[in-house]
Amino acid sequence: MTTTLVTPSPRTRREPTPRVTAKAGAALHRPWWMPWLWCAPAIAAAVVFGVFPFLNTVLLSFTNARPLGGPAAFVGLENYTRLLGDASFWSATWHSVLYALVVVPLMVLLPLLLAVLVEKRIPFIGFFRSAFYTPVLASIIVVGFSWQWLLRDDGLINGVLLATGLTTEAVPFLSEATLVLFGAMAMTVWKGLGWYMVLYLAALGNVPKELHEAASVDGASAPRRFLHVTVPGVRPTMLLVGTLTAIGSLRVFTEVYALGGATGGPGGEARTLPFYIRDVGLDPVTGNAGFGAAASVALFLLTVGFTVLGQRISRGEGR
Amino acid sequence: MRAAFGLAGRYALLLAVLAITVGPLLWQLTTALKGPGEDVYGDNASWWPRDLTFDNFVKIAQEVPIWSYVTNSVIVATLAIASNLVFASFGGYMLSRPGWRGRRAVFLLLVVALMFPFESIMISLFLSVRDMGLVDTLAGAWLPGVVGAFNVLIMRAAFLAVPSEVEDAALMEGAGEWTRFRRIFLPSAKGAMTVIAINSFIAAWDDFLWPLIVLRSEENFTLTLGLARLSTSSFGVDDKLVMTGSMISVIPVVVLFFLAQRWFYRGVESGAVKM
């Protein structure tokens, strides 16, 4: 249910050194079924709430099952042909992809700059680090309320824009679908800053200090040192963050709900792919779970595509 | 001189970022403390309440069953923390122990289960929960998050880091499997367990999409659903109450995080968690 990429740390990859005497004794005292018993809840959850729902989604996508039950019939590829001909599906898919295109570069760069800013242990830095993390702790719904205040016609941002004369009329951030979508993107970035800052902080700790010192001695300016020492040092983390945020962008639902309301923006025009899936697949009255499942398969394939792309880039960099 | 300027510049930047990251949440807090006659938006709205009051925390309960929302969220979040801690420890422990058949297969199963984004399987999950008869129940809201595969992998990594000498010593003393698990492995994985507890709590407490799908009647609403309802009430929305509800949602998480952050960062920095 949470984020979906695992990078085994070097420690996990290494098997513990064989301890012949003690280990052999311990293994002998353990009946064959004992490990399965310990792992049973984890296995059950992975199957019942992971693997099975996925396989079932693929199966459902060839049926006309209803969300509240009743007879379901096999309909072949009908859901998919209907999906490909549905303009709202393409618009939702485009919104999700656009989301990734905008959010990924910002999420790769801004938290890194923030991590560099809080890296040095100066007085009160612990307070600043924790404070920058607080948006991570708030729910998106709560964050949405404060962003509505920022983006309203009589909100803070429009207040500043009008007062400085940059605009003569309030920008309709919350009533124009495209602007709702971009507002949601800004919210995602704002809320994710602290999370990825922590990730980058851990990575920055592994960049050799001597490199920075050597560059300083050579008279390299701070921006040059950032580009030529810090960035190469944390490049693997940047790629990881890029992949994670790309996949995360495809999952966006609540941000759009929080800013655009239950319809997903005016006329549903700001809907993302998960929003579309919920609307077409789970509506108690009009929902078609089979059709929604076909859209879910599309979402899964997009996710796989982004993951593979991320790995391609990582591998290319590794050479 | 230049160093002093650099330090001042750094603090100026830190304060600017502080305003951006915490400002909106602080605005919600001060709005929650505003009296009935005060403006929330527009030119007349003040940053600090002119008429500071805690009345909104009483008034909100007259508007919506806020404490019922809170209770439901507490129940779901507590179940999620407990089940994730217990089951991730069990599974992670055995997966970190060598010498049994099927270990690799279970590990692979967990990695595979991580590949499916929730949003791409939520329709099937809903049908499963429907077939279990758990639509519109708190059990239904909790169950899909019973134990995250990623948490099992976190615990596995934490247990793998336990030095073998400690375990050997316990074995020499004849400590059984359960004793070794309880007395040696669990205490050494406090950091990882804190990370799992906090992440499970936040995931359940802040979740919106799944409760929105599975919960129907207001008496079963969790806090995020209740807040969304409060903010779209057809009888006119009192934004001070919306912000009051927001604070009821945020403050417990912030307090919990600050209490546990020492262990949390230790868990993150120990390298067991690369997330």
Keywords for this structure?
heterodimer; A: 319 residues; mainly alpha; 71% helix; globular; disordered N terminus; B: 275 residues; 72% helix; 0% strand
Plain-language structure description:
The complex is a heterodimer of chains A (319) and B (275). Chain A is mainly alpha-helical. Helix content of chain A is 71%, strand content 0%. The model of chain A is unreliable at 1-15 and 17-25 (pLDDT under 50). In chain A, α7 runs parallel beside α12 (254-260), α9 crosses α12 and α11 (222-250) runs antiparallel to α14 (289-318). In chain B, 72% of the residues lie in helices and 0% in strands. Chain B is built from 13 helices and no strands. Chain B has helices at residues 2-32, 55-63, 66-96, 103-113, 118-131, 138-142, 149-160, 164-172, 177-188, 190-206, 209-214, 223-231, 239-269. Classes of the chains: A mainly alpha (319), B mainly alpha (275). At the A-B interface, α1, α2, α3, α5 and α6 of A face α1, α3, α4, α5 and α7 of B.
Class based on secondary structure composition and strand pairing of chain B: mainly alpha
DSSP helix fraction of chain B: over 70%
Which bin fits the share of residues in helices of chain A?
Answer: over 70%
**What proportion strand of chain B?**
under 5%
Q: What characterizes the major β-sheet of chain A?
A: none
Counted by DSSP, the helix tally of chain A is: 14
List strands and helices in order, with pairings:
The complex is a heterodimer of chains A (319) and B (275).
Chain A: H1 10-13, H2 20-28, H3 34-60, H4 78-84, H5 87-119, H6 125-137, H7 140-151, H8 156-163, H9 177-204, H10 209-217, H11 222-250, H12 254-260, H13 273-282, H14 289-318
Chain B: H1 2-32, H2 55-63, H3 66-96, H4 103-113, H5 118-131, H6 138-142, H7 149-160, H8 164-172, H9 177-188, H10 190-206, H11 209-214, H12 223-231, H13 239-269
Helix pairs in contact in B: 1-13, 2-13, 3-7, 3-10, 3-12, 4-7, 10-13, 12-13
